[in-house]
Amino acid sequence: MLDRDKIFLYAGIIERGIFMKLKTLSLLAAGLLLTGAACAEYYAGAGYGISWNGGYAKTNDKKYDYKTFSDAWSLFGGTVIPTDYLDFHAEGEFFQLKAKPDKGKTRELRALMANLIAVIPNVDLPVQPYVGLGLGYGRWDHKNTAFKQLIIGTEYNLDQYPVGFALEYKHISPNEKGSSGKYRSKINSDVLMLKAKYLF
């Protein structure tokens, strides 16, 4: 059985690995922004949707399950960078939702994400499908933690106006948080969101 010092050692290794991933994604997004600045198209917008939250919060003698719907919203901004093969979106996003377990108080999830999105090319449709990944840092259940998310969506940009709309699914998940085995909490949120953006 692992002693307490080894548990903290392993936790530190995992935490450093997460921050290395965050740093790598941030540098990649920054590189795309710099290299594509001359031909890039910038945008900003907001989204609102519904989230299905599943998870738990537990102590030594109690456990509260999350199986509930809630609303969710986001603010985002970024740039579209065309390449020979794919169009990339490098964006920053602030995301928030509130989840209430079957018992206990409502807990808030807030995260600042760095997203890298690839628009699927050569699709003979009036809309453009896209996929992406995001890493970030934020707050869940009164504790700071790293976040990750998977993004799948489709967008439609108006030809006559600098406005676009998107229907987006995202799976967002923070790391499990707790202290000394006395309290643990975890949540996974599946979000369906309608987004609107303005192209500069």
Q: Any descriptors?
A:
200 residues, alpha+beta, Porin, 8-stranded antiparallel beta barrel, 1 helix, 9 strands, 62% strand, elongated
Describe it.
The chain is of the alpha+beta class. It has one domain: Porin (Beta Barrel). Helix content is 16%, strand content 62%. The protein has 1 helix and 9 strands. Strands 1-2-3-4-5-6-7-9 form an 8-stranded antiparallel beta barrel. The chain is elongated and about 60 Å long. Residues 4-13 have low confidence and may be disordered.
Q: Return the CATH class.
A: Mainly Beta
- Taken as a percent bin, the fraction of beta residues is over 45%
Radius of gyration: 19 Å
Estimate the global geometry from the Cα principal axes.
Answer: elongated
Question: Which sequence of strands runs across the widest sheet?
Answer: 1-2-3-4-5-6-7-9
* Continuous helix count: 1
> How many strand units?
9
The run of helices and strands is: HEEEEEEEEE
N→C terminal distance:
57 Å
Give the SSE map.
Blueprint (H helix, E strand, L loop, with lengths): L3 H32 L5 E19 L3 E20 L4 E13 L7 E13 L8 E13 L2 E15 L5 E12 L2 E3 L3 E17 L1
In short:
The chain has one helix spanning 4-35, and strands at 41-59, 63-82, 87-99, 107-119, 128-140, 143-157, 163-174, 177-179, 183-199. The chain has 200 residues and is an alpha+beta fold. It is elongated.
